[in-house]
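Q: what sequence does this backbone want?
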């Protein structure tokens, strides 16, 4: 358009909603890459920003462009950038790390103490263009469908969590059948787990979990987890637990149904009011590990190679909309009757 402006979905007011408005196109620094966005996906975090919940009110500056799940093409590279050229299909790691702290220097970027989130602490990908450091750009393999890369960020959360413990021959409990929990079920099954049991209260999402590889789902409104364990012949509890719900009841359920010495990974964000039965954790020798983000770049590599090895998570994308219909996309996410929702930016200026 020549006026150096672009369309973006912005948190324009401190209230529920996101607004499509014109904002300046971000500038490219010496080590940055400018990406023209093709497709984005809506994350649970974006829903919190949209709904303006308590977390969002404390975290998100008014005026921020949201979004951090995307795929696009390189349209400009800074003078210091090597390894990327105009036209490359790319996605990117949404945690911009400091590069200077102990963890960054040790190669544990997922534990950077000063990480800034794209679309959370700095302008995000719900826009025609995104600028990020070249060190955060992931080159896309042309053999993997483009829209899969739009969900590599949450797929990466699921991969980081599910692969944090050995899965082969294990009985796995996943509490919470949101898109990340469902993808974790697919990864667990693909990695050789025996039983992959997913609990939730949302039947639509439990059915989706079955489609992606869960061997048994439990709608806690209708069934007890302990009954299901008996039914499938489990006598000592789950070997591995992946807590994806952020629900205190989900975490409690998990702690009380693990085998002694069982291993738990926590991805779902618990509130400060959550009470944990530490007596059981201690007496039963449970391992609990917090998971944040993705390992850079091990998780990304694993995602790509698992997809190439035959892991099919494509059914997790249940809705596709033009970006002009973003409202419908958020409505689908908020309804709970959806998996991942992908928004197409290619006709924004039509």
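A:
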């Amino acid at each position: 358009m020549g006026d150096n402006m672009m369309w973006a979905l912005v948190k324009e007011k401190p209230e529920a909603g996101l607004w499509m408005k014109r904002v300046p196109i971000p500038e490219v620094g010496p080590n940055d890459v400018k990406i023209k966005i093709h497709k984005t996906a809506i994350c649970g975090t974006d829903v919190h920003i949209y709904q303006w919940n308590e977390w969002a009110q404390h975290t998100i500056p008014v005026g921020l462009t949201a979004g951090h799940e995307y795929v696009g093409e390189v349209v400009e590279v800074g003078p210091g950038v090597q390894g990327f050229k105009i036209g490359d299909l790319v996605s990117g790691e949404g945690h911009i790390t400091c590069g200077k702290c102990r963890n960054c220097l040790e190669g544990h970027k997922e534990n950077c103490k000063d990480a800034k989130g794209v679309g959370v602490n700095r302008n995000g990908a719900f826009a025609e263009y995104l600028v990020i450091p070249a060190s955060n750009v992931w080159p896309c393999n042309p053999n993997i469908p483009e829209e899969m890369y739009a969900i590599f960020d949450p797929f990466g959360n699921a991969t980081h969590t599910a692969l944090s413990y050995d899965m082969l021959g294990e009985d796995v409990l996943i509490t919470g059948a949101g898109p990340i929990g469902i993808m974790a079920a697919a990864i667990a099954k693909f990695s050789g787990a025996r039983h992959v049991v997913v609990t939730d209260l949302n039947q639509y999402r439990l059915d989706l979990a079955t489609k992606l590889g869960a061997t048994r789902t439990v709608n806690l409104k209708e069934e007890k987890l302990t009954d299901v364990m008996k039914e499938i012949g489990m006598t000592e509890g789950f070997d591995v637990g992946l807590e994806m719900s952020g629900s205190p009841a989900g975490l409690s359920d998990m702690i009380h149904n693990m085998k002694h010495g069982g291993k738990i990974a926590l991805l779902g964000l618990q509130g400060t009011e959550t009470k944990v039965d530490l007596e059981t954790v201690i007496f039963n020798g449970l391992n609990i590990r917090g998971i944040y983000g993705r390992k850079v770049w091990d998780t990304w590599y694993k995602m790509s190679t698992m997809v190439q090895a035959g892991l099919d998570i494509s059914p997790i994308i249940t809705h596709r909309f033009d970006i002009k219909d973003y409202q419908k996309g958020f409505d689908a996410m908020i309804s709970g009757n959806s998996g991942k929702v992908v928004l197409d930016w290619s006709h924004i200026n039509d």
